Amino acid sequence: MEGGEIAIPGVSELALFALLLAAAGAVAGLLAGLFGIGGGAILVPVFYQVFGWLDVPEAVRMHLSVGTSLAIIVPTSLRSYMAHRSHGAVDQELLSSWIIAVPLGAIIAAVIASEASSVTLRLIFAAVALLVAFRMMFNRASWRLGSDLPGNPFKFLVGTGIGILSGLMGIGGGVLNNTFMTLYSRQMHQAVATSAGVGVLISLPGLFGYVWAGWGVSGLPPFSTGFINWVAVVFIIPLTMYIAPFGARLAHRMSKRQLEIGFGIFLVVTAARFLISIYA
After folding, report:
1. Exposed, middle or buried by CB within 10 Å (0-12, 13-18, 19+), for 94?
2. Least C-beta-crowded within 10 Å: which of 40, 111, 251, 280?
């Protein structure tokens, strides 16, 4: 993978970078709070747009967006997991059974990303986003595959698959795990709580994996370690944590069905944006 060299920017360029990232963090925090979902599905398309405005080469832009998103998910998922665990809402048995499967998937994703093109990553993101959007917009309570979670080896393979897809998309796996658990008759509250733990299992190995995958790659913006941009990480984390409650308050004024349709539309627009960037 190759990209053009990016010169060290001056004060004005860094100020613009910071301003754009601040706007990205505010938007991501608002939408994450509004739709009650991990920020990765929101941050990756936002980062892709911002890094494009900053002239980050196309060859590394999606990789950088995904890796930076995973880095941001580490502290937020840890905080969320500890909070849910203190209330006894987490399915610790499922997490324990995935202690190898999910991180293995995240590592495999980083290996794939080290060789994958930007187009491939955008296609994966768009395809999964459309599938999730379909579920959100046309979901039925009657959709069930079983009365309880399946055993191994199927459960192990599902965990690995969630790790791979989430690692390639830069998300914490919440949407995918919620779908898996609710299809097997688990309550959404428990699924959401457990997804915070899944986010930890994905984001930690994913962070190191994307550092390795992008090590020595040219065309990355300043203050990047592999495919992780630390300026974005430092700016986004406090902003998303500050802004998210405002989105959450807005969410309480909307019905569950409105939220599902709203997030489904957001995912469709995001998928369309990536597909247009590929084929236009």
Report:
1. buried
2. 280
